[in-house]
């Protein structure tokens, strides 16, 4: 067992438990404490440091909640495998005072959540009381509403308000607050391997808005190539903009580039880190082929939608396609809908230099679509390290649900195949069942199970898919409900 | 002098000064205290009510700041002419609890400020320090950043946060929170004579976004008719959407309908309550002609942009065109950019039933572009009456600046004509000067005067306008700066 050498500064403003937490965290991230290593008991550490037992308990508790330590009943605390854990705070000490201060003068400037949208009738129904008869919310793209770090979020909000109180009333920068763009650029570089300057980032009110903006930057002409199944909101957004939609077959590695090459699309929309809804991850070789496709064709671009890559439960997150691109052919789109909250409506895209110039010329006059206060709230949340801690905390919670769900599904007769495990907030489950997908959905709804099938994600030949596939989301489904939820679902997939 | 009969309830939670304020305000709005009437002195009223002098001072102070009372030095307090004052709070007692509570499951759904936008070079320049060398900010569309009711705004924000803490994380309604839409519908009916159901309102992140959405609802085809000069952001937004732009000549009453009838436009974009930038008000007869134009032509619509009608300094605000429309041909667009703050990014549009159906079918899947927290903050601000009080307070401040500016400009040799007085946040001043508009702007910039000319609002024959016209905004120009600012401007318009 490692003798922890922690020097506490009792005159420091930071609480003692925070100093212990920070010290152990740095030892773990710095490799001085390695995976599986056992820590001294809280009692012993408290004695050594001459602090109260509760102080150490608080520090250990925090470390456990963020996935740095594992508490084994009756045995003690052990260092976790921290590959893929976020540690954003330290590098984030460049604060935004100066940029937050001045307002942008004289000019000023969605990801949908339920991945399916209701028919108008249903919409009206929810108009009044908003509530859906729901025992089990198994929709993908939902997030946990209990564990959210309200305290840290509100603290960041207060700081933001104090800092820009008066500037708040002046128009912000069309691309978004510079401070936020800098924080996002830094986060994307650390967490996603995205290489960009804050000047290349455009913050917008949700992915659909950013796609609308992109449509104006690229001009209306042309066709867009998408996988089938794909993310329906993106499909409908391009459709509404008058794009010709071209479905490209995909295999377990994602879009088939040789099929793409046969089309005349100038845009390819992909989700290489975690394809929606099947969760496939595009391997290195396929990524190179895709980049080559764009690079060999003047005016062709790849849209990389990196919607939920924050949550990966096995190994390290896969670096972004954008980071591999040396010729400015990838438009990277990301969102805070899953990592913070859907209703915040903050997304961002990284524009290659060439498109950035067009953006300035054609779209520079659009005011930002995100409130300055919300932007600064997010900026502070990231800079204070609250965001990184929140991601780690949620990752631990979601991993628990993911693992439980996977274990519950394995070996069931009605489960033919499970897609997209070990990442994201849902599993795609191909059913081994005599019923149609619609019928399963109908039965599920009757039992108060909110769940989505794969059909509405298919953009071609919806008919001839052999088996129904359910997208089982666990973002807003607590562990205690997962077990009963799966039993209830089992009732729906079997002949009465 | 009127003997004020005020019964105070000392057991009530509301502060005594608020009870006095509320009572006198209701007496004034109810006509029991009439214009010009003198109120008892603070000392006497304090004695009668057996409250401290400071309590009455607080109540009187509040009433003065909101424009109900006028304080004459050494003479006392007099009732103001309250025509056009807002009194929204009382009717607003329908609160939003029930609608706020439930989240919209399973699916979820700008006005630019400086009315001119910088060239990319300037944009970069401001990218780093954001600040502009500015002694006098005379840009139109700016608001006062000192007098904003931060307290009331933050209070509303806290209420919003507490009320929807957990729902906050769930997707909101695509059209915007029902509670907000109800409050806005109520406000629009009271203040602007707009007749609509909350179900017809779509809340969006700025006017430009709403126009983009409208473009998708209406389909890309067709031409849009605009006045020249007009609001440049709207012009460029339609242009970016691929609309054919048709300039329609205007006179002092606004767009010439017989000229419009000669075009083949299916959309007419107008600002009948206060045209930007000339501030003309469309009279009743012209409004009827315009409505007739749309009603006689299937598929033709009028977009009524009601951007800054909150501030009118003479007589009552002009009711909206939408309120006169009986056949669903007017799309009403409004914003909180001027009435609350530009950086909040909250606008709204009222869709006629026919377009609402298309919206649900084609665009119902778009998540709202405004953060739920911001929406609820605005909702609470309106419901608590803070918004109404803020409007009255700002109206008084802006009227003071407007009157002073008007008085300073009258009779100057270099002032040929003044357009758009008695409303809004700027005056359009036609110059009697040998210099070109560009030259005046260049000189102004060199003297640290931020000001806009009319040329960039012209969408046809920019050349042959005879004289330069300056748009002198006073929204963010305190009275003490107006005098010096006009002197500085005078230096720019005369030959050295």
How would you summarize this macromolecular structure in one to three sentences?
The first copy, chain A, has helices spanning 16-29, 42-49, 53-65, 97-101, 120-129, 150-164, 178-192, 207-218, 232-240, 257-262, 284-295, 353-363, 372-383, 386-409, 437-446, 479-493, and strands spanning 69-72, 76-79, 136-137, 201-204, 223-227, 244-248, 250-251, 254-255, 267-270, 301-305, 330-335, 347-350, 415-419, 426-431, 449-450, 452-453, 469-473. With 496 residues, chain A is of the alpha/beta class.
Structure description:
The structure is a homodimer of 496-residue chains. The first copy, chain A, is α/β, with parallel strands linked by helices and 496 residues long. In chain A, 39% of the residues lie in helices and 14% in strands. The first copy, chain A, has helices at 16-29, 42-49, 53-65, 97-101, 120-129, 150-164, 178-192, 207-218, 232-240, 257-262, 284-295, 353-363, 372-383, 386-409, 437-446, 479-493, and strands spanning 69-72, 76-79, 136-137, 201-204, 223-227, 244-248, 250-251, 254-255, 267-270, 301-305, 330-335, 347-350, 415-419, 426-431, 449-450, 452-453, 469-473. In chain A, the strands form 5 sheets. A 7-stranded mixed beta sheet of chain A has the order 4-12-11-10-9-5-6, with helices on both faces. Chain A has a 4-stranded antiparallel beta sheet with strand order 13-14-17-16, covered by helices on one side. The longest helix of chain A has 24 residues, at 386-409. Residues 89-132 of chain A have low confidence and may be disordered. At the A-B interface, helix 4, helix 5, helix 6, helix 8 and helix 9 of A face helix 4, helix 5, helix 6, helix 8 and helix 9 of B.
